[in-house]
Specification:
The chain is 31% helix and 35% strand. The protein is of the alpha+beta class. A hairpin with a 7-residue loop joins strand 3 and strand 4. The longest helix has 24 residues. The protein is globular and about 45 Å long. The N and C termini lie far apart (46 Å). The relative contact order is 0.19.
């Protein structure tokens, strides 16, 4: 894969995920004719994010940890959404490349010591590469490991080792007033 191919894949996955996520968060129809290059520029521009999803508060997390997973779970349980940027780890066959996924659900596990609280174990995601199968509602499962590493398992059985690079959370503004 050339550098231009990798950049195009990154642009396409980001635009695909953001357009669908924004349509859900703003409760507006999906516009397939949007400019992918313009959407890719949004990745680093807070002002553009606010224009794209004006009814949401945007939070960005670099790297991963218990706090970012906790915030992901809270956001999704309260009607929010998220995008995660992953970097495929280098192997003999595949050069490192970056892609985005849209989080459509989360797997939780009860913490045995407390019996009342739970923690996020995995994100259920879709992307242009991993569309949901007819029965699952998600295309892949991202489980977290140590030091920002994660494993992506598609519903078709594909397995990727990745590094968690960034997460963007979108929460409805009305939640901010309630806190």
């Amino acid at each position: 894969m050339t550098l231009d191919d990798e950049k195009q894949r990154h642009t396409n996955s980001f635009a695909w995920c953001l357009s669908r996520c924004a349509a859900v968060m703003t409760q507006q129809p999906l516009h397939e004719s949007c400019d992918d290059a313009k959407l890719a520029e949004l990745a680093g521009d807070a002002k553009e994010w606010k224009q794209r999803v004006p009814n949401c508060v945007i939070w960005r997390f670099k790297g991963t940890g218990a706090n970012s997973r906790k915030r992901l779970a809270e956001a999704l349980m309260n009607g929010g959404s998220a995008l995660i940027k992953l970097e495929r780890t280098k192997s003999a066959k595949v050069e490192s490349d970056i892609f985005w996924v849209w989080v459509v659900g989360i797997e939780m596990q009860k913490v045995p010591e407390t019996k009342t609280s739970s923690k996020a174990m995995a994100a259920l995601v879709v992307s242009p590469e991993w569309l949901p199968s007819w029965a699952s509602g998600y295309g892949a499962r991202v489980s977290w490991g140590l030091n920002g590493l994660c494993i992506v398992r598609s519903v078709e059985g594909h397995l990727l080792n990745c590094r968690y690079a960034e997460m963007v959370l979108m929460e409805p503004k009305y939640l901010q007033c309630a806190r």
